[in-house]
Amino acid sequence: MDLNTKFTPKSWPDHAEQATLEGKNKFVGIWIFICSDIVLFASVFATYLSLKDSGPAGMDIKASELFGLELAFVMTMLLLTSSLTSVYAMYHMKNYNFKGVQLWMGITVLLGLGFLGLEIYEFYEYTVHEGFGFTHSAFSSAFYVLVGTHGLHVIIGLVWITGLIIRNAKRGLNLYNAPKYFASSIYWHFIDVIWVFIFTVVYLMGVLG
Amino acid sequence: MGHDTHVQEKSQVQYDYDRKHNAVHMRHQVVNFAIMIFFTFLAFAVVVADFSPYFIKPFILLLAGVQVVLQLYSFMHMGEKKAVHIGFINTFVWMGALIAFTIFLALLTIVWW
Amino acid sequence: MSSVAIGKEKGFGATFWDYLTTVDHKKLGNMYFFAGLLFFAIAGLEALMIRIQLMVPNNDFVSAGFYNELLTMHGTTMLFLAAMPLLFGFMNAIVPLQIGARDVAFPFLNSLGFWLFFLGAIFLHLSFFMGGAPDAGWTSYASLSLYSPGHGIDFYVLGLQISGAGTLISGINFIVTIVTMRAPGMTFMRMPLFTWTTLITSALIVFAFPALTVALFFMLADRMFGSNFFDHTMGGNTVIWEHLFWIFGHPEVYILILPAFGLFSEIIPVFARKRLFGYSSMVFATILIGFLGFMVWAHHMFTTGLGPTANAIFAVSTMAIAVPTGMKVFNWILTIWGGSIKVTVPMIYALGFIPSFVAGGVTGVMQAVAPLDYQLHDSYFIVAHFHYVIVGGIILAIFGAAHFYWPIMFNRALNEKLGFVVFWLFFIGFHMTFFIQHFLGLMGMPRRVFTYQADQGWDLFNFISSIGALLMGVGVILLVVNMFLSIKSKPLNTRDYWNDGRTLEWAIKTPVPFYNFKQTPLVRGYDPYWIEKSEGNKEGMTFAEPIGEIHMPNGSILPLVMSIGLFIASFGALYHPDGVSWSIPVIILGLGITVASMIVRSFKDDLGFHVSKEEVIATEESLYGKGGNK
C-alpha cells in the first residue's frame, strides 16, 4: 500500500475503510474485539446487579438515595451527542473531506472529555462527600468497577482518537488511515451502547430502588 | 497481504449520485439520533414522574434495547449489506449478546443468597 | 526479517534478535511449541512429585503446604501454559498454510500475544522463588484464596491476567485470519477441519476469557486494593467467583479439546487414505459443542447448593453435549472403516485416542447426573475423568500431531521406531495411572489431599497409579530425546512427507519460505491437494495469480517491550498490599513503558515491505535448487 497515492473526491473509493485487506482485517478485528468486550461488561454488570445495595451489616447507603439523575442525564446527553458527531466524521470521510473528519472527530473528543470530567466529579462527590469509597462495601466496589471500566474505555477511546487526529493532521486521508478512523468510530459507538445500559440499569433503576 | 487497489475515477453522474446518497444517509442518521434522544428523555421522564415501578422497569429496559439496536444497525453499520463479512459479524454479536444474557440470568438467580 | 538472507548462515546474536522481533507465524508457532513444551515438562515434574508423595501411605516426601502448591501449579500450568501454547503452536504453524495465506491477519498482535503469554507464565513461575507458589487449586475458589497468606495467589492472579490477555489477542487474530484471508475458492465449507476447530476455539476464547479477566480483576482488587467483591462480611459473595470462573472454565475445556479433535480429523483421513467421513456433520458438531460449552458451566457447581431447578437444567444441557461429541467419534470410526490403513506414529496416537477419549467422555456423562455427582464430587473419580479427557484427548493429539507436522514445522522427521516406543510407554503408563483412580474415587479417596492412612484398601491402587506416572515420565523424556535426535537428522527438502496428504499445507515444499506460497493457490474443492494430485498436477497447486511482488509485514521488538512493561507493573501491584513505598511508582513505570511503546507503534507507520519477483525466484532457488519449487 502506497501512502503517496493521491485521491480526489471522485477517485476515493466507496468503502475506503474496507478497500484494502488491512482495512478489512481491522474492520472485522474491531468487531470481534467488541464481541469479547460485550462478555466483559456482562460479567461486571451482572456482578454489580447481584451485589447492589449489599454491604456490611448496618450499611446505610442505598442506591435509591445515593444516585441523582441530573448529572447522569447531562452525561448521557454528552455521550449520545458525541456518537452523532463521530457519525458526521464518517460521513465526511465518505465524501473525502478531511477537514470535516478532523473537525467532527475533534468535537467528539471534546464531548468525551466533558463526559469524563463529569464522571470524575461524580466519583469525587461520592467518595469524599458521601463517604462511599471504593473499599466501603461490596456495593461500592462493584459500582466503581462497573462505571470505572466504562470510564477506562472512554479514556482509551479519547487517547486513540486524539492520537489519530494528531498523527494524521498533516497528511490527509489515505487508504492506510481511513480504516483506523473507521475502527475508532465503531469503538466509540460501542462505548455509547454500554452507557445506554449503565444509565438505564444503574442510575434509573437504581433510583427506583 | 493484499494487492493495491486500483485508483478508479468515478463518472460525474456516479459522483453526484453518491454524494446525494451519502447526504440522504446522513439525514437518516440524524433522524435516528433524534429518536435516541427522545427515548432517553422518555426514560428519564417516566422515572421522574414516579409511575409504578412495575411499569417503569420493563419500559425503560425496552427503550434501552431499542436504542442499542439503533446504535448497532445504524451508527455502527451492522445492517449495511455491502460491508465485508457483515453476516459473520452479526452472528458473533448476537452470540455475544446471548452469552451476556445467560450470565445475567445466572448471577441474578443462582448466586445462592 | 530480511528478504534475501535465506541460505546464508546467520550468527547466534542475529538469529536470537530475529526470534525476539519476528512476526512470522511459522517462527511464532515454533516458539509457542517450545515454550509450551518447557512448561509441560515443569508441570509434568510437579505431577511426578505429587505421585511420588502419594505412592505410599503417610509419606513425607513433600510437606502438606508444598503439596498444595504443587497441585495448584500442576493444574494451572498444564491448562494455561502447556496445553494451550502447544495447541497455539500448531494453529500458528499450520492454519495459515491450510487456508493459503501469507501470514496471519495481525502479525504484530500475533507476536504480542506470544510475549504476553510467555512473560505471564514466567511471572507465575517466579512465585516458587519469591515466597511460595499459589496454593488454592487451579480453580482458586475465593473463599479459600482470599485468605491464603503470602503472595502465591497474587502471582496466580497477575500471571494469568497477563497471559490471558495474550490468549485473547491470539484468539481475535485467528478469527480474523480465517474469516478474511482464505485463498480464492476456499469457502467455509471447504476449510480443513483443523481450521474449523481453530475458528470455533478462537470464538470460545473471545467469549470466555473476558469472564476470567473480570474474575481475576475482582480477586486482584480484593487482595491488593481493598475492595469487597468476595468478602461476605462486607456484603460480597464468593459464589460470584465460582460462577465467573466456570463461565470461563468450562469453555476453556472445549478451547483445549476442539483443536485436538481438529488435529485427529487431519491425521485420520491421511492414514486411512480416505476422505473424512461426514465432513459437514463434523463442522456442525464442532459449532454445536462450542455453543453448548457455554450453557453448562454450573455442572461444576452442583454441590454448591444452587437448587434442584438449576441443577436439573445444567444436568440436561451437559448430557446434550454427548450427542455432537458422539457424532464426531462415529465419524472418525467410519473414516477408518474400509480405509487402506497405514499404522504410522500419528495414526497409532489417533487409534489410541478414540477409546481413551470415549472412556473419559462416558464418565463425564455419569457426573452430569446431579445426584450421582454429589457422591463423586471432589473424589479421585473426578481426577480420573478429567485426566482421561485431557491426557487421552489433548495430550495424545499434541504428541500425534507433533510427529505428523514435524516435517512441515522443522523440515525434519521424528524417528518412527522411537515414536512407537514412546507411544506404548506413554499409553500404558497413562491407563495405569488413571484407570485405577476411578476405583480409588469410588472407594472414597478425596482429591487434593497430601497423604492418606494405610489399610483403607487404597495402598496398592495408589502404588500402581504412581508406577504408571513414572512410565509416562519416561515416555515424555524419550519423546524429547527423539526431538533432539531429529536436529541431527538430514533435512527432508520434500513435500507431502506422508505421501497421502490431502490439504494445502502438504502441497508446499519444505523448508517453507517466509512468504509461504510464491503464488496464492486456487482452491478447487475440499481436500485441494488431493484433487490436484489425483489430476496429476506436478506442482501440487493451481495458482490464482502469476508470480509477482509479495507484500510482507515488518518485524518489531515492540511486542516484547510492551509485555515487559506489564511484567514490571505486575511486581508493583504484587507488593502493594505490603505497604512498600515503591509499589505505585513501579506500576506507573511498567504501564508507562507499555503505553509509550503503544504510542511509538501508532506514530510509526508500518507498511511492511515488498519482496520483488526476482527475490522470490532467487529464494525459491536457494531453498530447492535450480528450477525452484517444482
Give an overview in words.
The complex is a heterotrimer of chains A (209), B (113) and C (630). Chain A has 209 residues and is an all-alpha fold. Chain A has a single domain (17-52, 62-208), classed as Four Helix Bundle (Hemerythrin (Met), subunit A) (Up-down Bundle), CATH 1.20.120.80. In chain A, 74% of the residues lie in helices and 0% in strands. Chain A has helices at residues 21-51, 63-66, 69-94, 98-129, 138-167, 178-208. Chain A is elongated, with a radius of gyration of 20 Å. Chain B folds into two domains: 8-76; 82-113. The longest helix of chain B has 37 residues, at 12-48. Chain B is flat. With 630 residues, chain C is an all-alpha fold. Chain C has a single domain, classed as Up-down Bundle (Cytochrome C Oxidase, Chain A). Chain C is built from 19 helices and four strands. Chain C has a two-stranded antiparallel sheet with strand order 1-2. In chain C, strands 3-4 form a two-stranded antiparallel ribbon. Chain C is globular and about 70 Å long. At the A-B interface, α1, α3 and α6 of A face α1, α2 and α3 of B.
Shape category of chain A: elongated
Rg of chain C, Å, rounded: 25 Å
Count of extended strands of chain A: 0
CATH level-3 fold name of chain C: Cytochrome C Oxidase, Chain A
User: Which chain pair shows the most residues in contact?
Assistant: A-B, 62 and 59 residues
Tally of separate domains of chain C? 1
